[in-house]
Design goal:
mainly alpha
Length: 372
């Protein structure tokens, strides 16, 4: 019987730069679709409902969501490193234990965040000086989002696990599918049924559920090295400690950036709904740039090194440093072109209070000149 050819990108074998590019580009495209996925609600709500709804979707509630999701994405990097390590070493037993430990961590974390998020949503919004005219809508959006945070955590940990084992294509395919589902449901519920903020939140929740189901299905499919089995999902102390040791610093690092944004948002909230809506529209567009700029090929580099180190390929591990650095060297050109395109993208995003948004864009261009 002929063996089935693996679709996984064996990044530790073959020509390094070719394998690295095959692994890198799906992740880069995934970051773009991830942000488009997050921006769809703001674009549709801002154009078809109004500036108050836009402020509800992306103002204080958006910053709180970024804080929670950013922390867990950082935390999941711990699972990525551990799983890449065992996959490179061909240690099937420890790999599967790490897989089930990471899954248990996602489930337990999502339950805790769901409970506290739903209960504390009004208090957190008041702490950020959210105006009274957008408080009700912000609470609704935040509570519906936290009700489905399980799907967000499952997708993020599942996609991180797949990428750790060299499969960066399937997470991209799932994200593209869910992005289109989200846009379709936004139009269907917000425009067609006039559900406003509730419709945008439900569209996001449903599309996140689809992405989580697709990732779980991929992990449960029997593979040569791994298979997710629900009955084996539990925390293993040593592996949990290893994941947290690596993931917590990354999670806290992400929180520092988001806490700074929360402080800025809290100050802007005093200026009223117009400023909140303008900053939301600007923030959604500028987030595209920061996702690519912050990526810096580190995801590829981390997975590549972990797998090579434990595969005992010292020479190739040293050579693998050059590929990500060359990719990083191309980024300033992309950054410059992206900054030039921001005003046009902003104009397409929303039609209210464009003058406030243009002030934000002007400030960002000055910061961009300083950075380079």
């Amino acid at each position: 019987m002929k063996q089935k050819t693996s679709a996984v990108n064996q990044i530790t074998e073959g020509v390094i730069w070719k394998q690295l590019l095959l692994f890198f580009f799906p992740i880069m495209l995934g970051t773009l679709f991830q942000q488009l996925y997050n921006t769809a609600d703001a674009i549709i709500v801002g154009r078809f409902v109004g500036k108050e709804a836009l402020a509800c979707v992306g103002g204080s509630s958006g910053q709180l969501i970024n804080l929670v999701v950013g922390f867990f994405v950082g935390l999941s990097s711990g699972a990525t490193v551990i799983i890449a390590r065992y996959y490179g070493a061909k240690n099937k037993k420890e790999l599967n234990l790490a897989l089930h430990t990471a899954s248990a961590l996602a489930i337990i974390g999502s339950i805790i965040i769901t409970v506290f998020g739903i209960l504390l949503a009004p208090a957190m919004l008041r702490f950020m000086n959210t105006p009274s005219n957008v408080m009700t809508g912000s609470v609704i959006y935040l509570r519906i989002y936290f009700a489905g945070i399980f799907f967000v955590f499952v997708y993020n940990i599942g996609s991180a696990i797949l990428r750790a084992m060299g499969d960066s294509k399937r997470p991209l395919y799932y994200l593209i599918v869910c992005c289109f589902i989200n846009v379709f449901l936004d139009i269907f519920l917000v425009v067609g049924f006039n559900l406003g903020i509730t419709g945008a939140a439900l569209a996001t929740l449903f599309s996140q559920a689809v992405s989580a189901i697709l990732v779980i299905r991929a992990l449960m499919k029997p593979e040569e090295m791994y298979q997710l089995e629900p009955k084996k999902i539990r925390l293993h102390r040593f592996l949990l400690f290893s994941i947290l040791t690596i993931g917590l610093p990354a999670g806290f690092q992400s929180m520092m950036y988001n806490i700074a944004n929360i402080i800025i948002q809290s100050s802007l909230n005093h200026l009223g709904t117009d400023a909140m809506a303008a900053y939301t529209a600007f923030g959604k567009m500028d987030a595209f740039y920061w996702m690519i700029s912050g990526f810096d090929c580190n995801v590829c580099r981390t997975k590549l090194w972990c797998r090579k180190i434990f595969k005992d390929e010292t020479k190739r591990n040293c050579l693998s440093f050059d590929g990500p650095c060359c990719l990083s060297a191309c980024k300033p050109d992309f950054d410059f072109l992206w900054k030039l395109s921001l005003p046009a993208l902003y104009a397409g995003c929303r039609r209210y209070q464009s003058r406030n948004g243009n002030y934000f864009l002007a400030c960002t261009k000055l910061c961009f000149i300083y950075l380079y």
